[in-house]
Amino acid sequence: MSAPLRAGLIGLGVMGRNHARVLNGLDGVDLVGVVDPVAKPDSVPHGVPLLKTLPELLELGVDYAVVACPTARHEEVGLALAEAGVGALVEKPLADSVEAAERMVKAFESRGLVAGVGHIERYNPSLQSMRARLEAGELGEVFQVVTRRQGPFPHRIADVGVVKDLATHDIDLTAWVTGQDYVSISAHTVARSGRPHEDMVAAVGRLADGSMVNHLVNWLSPLKERTTVVTGERGCFVADTLTADLTFYANGELSTEWEALRAFRGVSEGDMIRYAIPKREPLLVEHERFRDAVRGDGDDIVTLRQGLRTVEVSAAVLESARRGETVSLRPSGVLGAV
Q1: Residue 219, phi then psi, degrees to nearest 5
Q2: Which of 41, 70, 126, 252 is the most exposed place for a label (fewest CB within 10 A)?
Q3: For 4-27, what is each residue's pLDDT tens digit?
Q4: Which helix (H) or strand (E) holds 148?
Q5: InterPro entries, from UniProt (predicted)?
Q6: What domains sit in the chain, N to C, each tagged with a CATH number?
Q7: What percent of the chain has pLDDT over 90?
Q8: What's the pLDDT band for 129 if we cut at 50, 70, 90?
């Protein structure tokens, strides 16, 4: 049996603590150190050293590291890890600008290192099931993808707005579940919380196959909602990623004698099915897949190039809002099975 991989963690915020919990119990992995200059010793798992700097972690010797520090520091930390020959799982978004994300892709790819982005929604059971069913053609032609992601303001976020923090989830999952790239986006943003960044965005876009996307994202609502609706020629799928439930609403096929409805050439209500699906913790699955990739046993991770594309689309969202017009996106060529 091979020796456990040695993993490190940079950042002990809300997500960092979740990463620490999962890493500390992950089969085949030893969490050998956590870097956070302001965290308290009791915030790390028992027996794991709390370090002040990244060089201290590198001196311990690690096979890979999880980067969960603020987005503004992703590039700095990522480039240092790549220079040291250490793979990395970087929390989303990959970086705070397209240029920074491109530099990170180059740094890891040029050294042949395993690196990925923590777009955790890809491992949500409801979306995993939805994607498999879409690939099997159960919905037929896809017409539209609508996402709603809203809730109270997360005080842990200080360096980016709602587009980079939350909308990147929906941008990535939309391209992933449909297998289609974004070709254009039009967006409006507002800032109502007194912070320098936007806290609400509404965006409409088009994918390469002609299907429409709609994203409503904010952190100004007391209602917490995480919903993805995909509508196609045979009905629609509704994924609730808070509960990991997937429901199918079929187009109705019953005839009617009501003349006003008979003249309507759209669809009618049909059967509703809520699927029974296994519900494993998405973060644990994400770590298992990344561990396997580092071992050379699989490639089911979100690549840096896919993470770069999400940063490009999010930048286009902000550009569209700033300019007040639709922004076209160049083809990415990075979509693929994950």
Answers
A1: -125, 40
A2: 41
A3: 999 999 999 999 999 999 999 999
A4: strand 142-150
A5: Gfo/Idh/MocA-like_OxRdtase_N (IPR000683), Gfo/Idh/MocA_Oxidoreductases (IPR051450), GFO_IDH_MocA-like_dom (IPR055170), NAD(P)-bd_dom_sf (IPR036291)
A6: 5-120+284-302 (3.40.50.720), 122-280+310-328 (3.30.360.10)
A7: 83
A8: very high
